Amino acid sequence: MIKTRYKSIPPYRTKDGSIIRELLHPDLHGETVNQSLAEATIPPNFTTLRHHHVNFSEVYHVTHGTGALTVGKDVSEIREGDTVYIPPGAQHSVTNTGPTDLRILCCCTPPYTHEGTVIDEDNSLF
Q1: Which domain holds residue 46?
Q2: Which CATH number is 54's domain given?
Q3: Is residue 68 part of a domain?
């Protein structure tokens, strides 16, 4: 069994600007873990940078707050309890539209890497 304690995990800021706590990742918990699970926190009135992941898919599960998720040209309201699949290569960003932090569990398969995340400067797809 692999177990982590939330309060012992230091947060850091990712390339897209969100604040992340890496709950489960092979870099931290061993190579037998073949996915990653993190909590993203997006403060009120903040939008993450548009980005895509080269070689991994991502599942978002909203645990707190409300926001708007843009995937490609599609924009959808997201709120607590919503789950969304984002395929590899799909440009996406999240805007917190509520008065409190927006918190999202992010599961990546294969595991998240900074190198596999590309900030998109070309906004023509949006």
Answers
A1: 15-116
A2: 2.60.120.10
A3: yes
Number of domains into which the chain is organized? 1
Give the list of residues 6+ apart from residue 107 with CB closer than 8 angstroms, or none: 35, 36, 37, 58, 59, 61
User: In this structure, how many other beta carbons lie within 10 angstroms of the beta carbon of residue 83?
Assistant: 12
Q: Is residue 123 part of a domain?
A: no
- Percentage with pLDDT > 70 across the chain: 96
Residue 55 has pLDDT above 80, yes or no: yes
* b/e map 93-116, b = 16+ CB within 10 Å: bbbbbbeeebbbebbbeebbeeee
| Residue 5, domain member (yes or no) | no
3 assigned to some structural domain? no
* Residue 27: band (very low, low, confident or very high) from pLDDT cuts 50, 70, 90: confident
Helix (H, G, I), strand (E, B) or coil at 92: strand
Mean pLDDT, residues 39-45: 97
- pLDDT of 91 higher than 90: yes
